[in-house]
Amino acid sequence: MRAALLSIGDELLLGEKPETNSAAIAQLLLQHGIDTTQRQCVGDDRRAIHAALAALAAEAELVVATGGLGPTADDLTREALGDLISPGESLEIDTASAAAITARFAARGRVLQEVELRQARCPRGSRCLSNGVGVAPGIAARHGKTQIICLPGPPNEALPMLAAELSSLTHERGEQTSPSTIRCGIVQSCGLGETESARRLGELMRRDANPHVGTTASGAMVQARIRWRGQQATPEAIGSLQERIMALWHPWSYSPGDDPLSAVVGQMLRRRGESLAVAESCTGGLLGGECTHIPGSSDWFRGGVIAYSNQVKVDMLGVDPMSLLQHGAVSAQTARAMALGALSRFSADWAIAITGVAGPGGGTAEKPSGTVLVSVAGRAQVGTTRRFLIPGTRSGIRERSVRLALQALRFELLGCADQPLLHQVAHSVQSGERSAK
Amino acid sequence: MRAALLSIGDELLLGEKPETNSAAIAQLLLQHGIDTTQRQCVGDDRRAIHAALAALAAEAELVVATGGLGPTADDLTREALGDLISPGESLEIDTASAAAITARFAARGRVLQEVELRQARCPRGSRCLSNGVGVAPGIAARHGKTQIICLPGPPNEALPMLAAELSSLTHERGEQTSPSTIRCGIVQSCGLGETESARRLGELMRRDANPHVGTTASGAMVQARIRWRGQQATPEAIGSLQERIMALWHPWSYSPGDDPLSAVVGQMLRRRGESLAVAESCTGGLLGGECTHIPGSSDWFRGGVIAYSNQVKVDMLGVDPMSLLQHGAVSAQTARAMALGALSRFSADWAIAITGVAGPGGGTAEKPSGTVLVSVAGRAQVGTTRRFLIPGTRSGIRERSVRLALQALRFELLGCADQPLLHQVAHSVQSGERSAK
């Protein structure tokens, strides 16, 4: 069974409001074994909505539309659906819906404006879906072989309404659309690179393979998305395939699920009873922000210094001013000294330091924009300093720096700090002086 | 001129990754006087991409597609475009693109895999668009009366490429698509609340008004979006309307444009020759991250301490351990002491401290999740401490805290620190002890 989604609204079309319903609806459909093959978005325009409903109904067995069911003059989904399934006829008032709307306003002591009752209208031959959360009812209708479901825009109203409708639809269609039809899973990696990730997956990525694995690259991360059709796609089978991809991508793979890298690193530290401190220059606090995004991170995250100016590197982290002068703020020596300073000032077991040129200005021939040094130091382990040359914008460089830094610490904890990371151009396992000045 | 947008990718279709390109592209098109009338999304399926390109080209004069231009087997946009504009013919290698890709890999000392050169292929009759940021070139082609532009998925690659192409397209078409057709403008505010923002705009928000003003609320921010059609919509007229809205929303309005609040605050500090330091507990570095997002922020941003644990608050910011014990980490007294500590440790002119319960755990009846204290202290000004009760998730609470804290500093700089902010439940202009212990 193929589904097409339609979102309706000027604000969505023009991108003034992010369109989030489709993603949630596609996920819900997938859980019911229904594949979304197309998504479309149109404005508050009766002709455009009608045309889109007709086109999508010709392509798919299920059309799910959201938006345009409210009381105002620019809510036109009812009219457009009528143009498709009962052209030339006026909308009818659904008495159950009118009663529900009236009761809802009465229960809240609110004055019922006549315009609100516009929401009880529906095309001849359609069926209203009651709204357990808000005012506007949904509408279900059949057009040829296609089932059309129109839902209100707010996700907290649309999703429960759709879930209820899908249960009865699935029940009606029997085994054919049981949840076993499609199963999904993901695996996440950081620092491996898209081409190499794909090479390691080999045949699994073949377009017609079942299970099929696709990849998505974003920042320094690559995600594998498993989709498996048929009876063999048991949760256990998905789990083994995830483990297989984890192994193919080892040690860059960090989660056979949707855990953030910072949560994975935090969990490793928690198990070891160890703590982390950070010293950030070009990322200005984003690494700390990423660590503390994880609830309960106070168990393993101690704190950090945002050492944006050189004076702060000296005053708050004990970086030697002479060394700073000699090697510069963006150097392996400074990164190392920052990490050692954080380690001692915060009495932490581990410290990560980041210093670099995030751009767009500030680069030189020797240290162009995107040059980032990441140093990991441990109380009981010497640590590693890596030099990266990261492409992209200022925010892209900063975001990738944070992720690569977390992966660098993870490699240290795993004992594989000699493995390279994406964008890395130099690498040194430290053996120098341990104490910060 | 009407545009249709197509986003390509299984991960977008199935909602595994949020689709953010369309919104940014629609906004960019609007700035060039081009109305987006339709948006569509399909998976990594050659037949579906071809069908969508054909359908959209029949409806619109401009089709902008994103995604599916990478090196892997599931990147099929080139093939699908070929199926439309030069059916039956193989893709050709664009020599300039192949040279650019080779040079890019050489410059980074990376091994060029043959598969990367797949990205230099394009259909006969099309034209490659160079990518200033990443590897994959875009493609432009004409199909009947329709211009088709295919862009890589990453927004930081797609948007500059489209901007360059639109400039030449607009130039070529002359007056017909001159920006006078539609003009847009925005005004940004923080801490005012959506209902009050709308009330102050009054008649400007009427659906059929021209100019029409809509609002979008996100976090603690409300943005006014002006859309004005016709000859009267001169840049000057838009500018005056922006000024009018700035005045209606004063002092919560902070930009008649898209400047981030941190840039506005940074500009004020730069003009005064003053500097800022931060002390962050529950936001864990996000405020520093927001400040250093702005290029050139080293002129005014000194640094900060991520004081996630109490010990760090004592050791690195000089908070009195007895006071911490007596009032707790989430208290006006601790926030104040953190701000004074940052002020003195960083020798800054201003300091902002944030401490709170970001949840989901850790709340009490007296200090529920969402309780956040923001203290602003100045070298030459006593400062203000505000208590907030912020609704939402952990990340929502943290994000709003950062923005409200920046607005609190801005009010201090403007001399209107007595004005309340959204979610604020208590407010004290400090008169207590100045020195941190």
Q: How would you describe this protein?
A:
The structure is a homodimer of 437-residue chains. Chain A has 437 residues and is an alpha/beta fold. The first copy, chain A, folds into three domains: 2-177, Molybdenum Cofactor Biosythetic Enzyme, Chain A (3-Layer(aba) Sandwich), CATH 3.40.980.10; 180-255, Alpha-Beta Plaits (2-Layer Sandwich); 261-429, Alpha-Beta Complex (Maf protein), CATH 3.90.950.20. Chain A has 14 helices and 18 strands. In chain A, the strands form four sheets. Chain A has a six-stranded mixed sheet, sandwiched between helices. In chain A, α10 (286-291) links the parallel β13 (276-280) and β14 (301-306). In chain A, α2 packs parallel to α6, α3 packs across α4 (77-85) and α9 runs parallel beside α14. β14 of chain A pairs antiparallel with β14 (301-306) of chain B, so a sheet runs across the interface.
Q: If strands are numbered along the chain, what order do they take across the biggest sheet of chain A?
A: 2-1-3-8-7-6
Largest interface: A-B, 93 and 88 residues
Oligomer: homodimer
Hey, roughly how much beta strand do the residues of chain A contain? 15-25%
What general form of chain A does the structure show? elongated
Total beta strands of chain A: 18
Q: What's the gyration radius of chain A in Å?
A: 28 Å
Number of domains of chain A: 3
- Give me the number of helical elements of chain A: 14
Distance separating the two termini of chain A? 67 Å
Largest sheet: number of strands, sense, barrel closure of chain A: 6 strands, mixed
CATH hierarchy: architecture of the largest domain in chain A: 3-Layer(aba) Sandwich
CATH fold annotation of the largest domain in chain A: Molybdenum Cofactor Biosythetic Enzyme, Chain A
CATH superfamily of the largest domain in chain A: MoaB/Mog-like domain
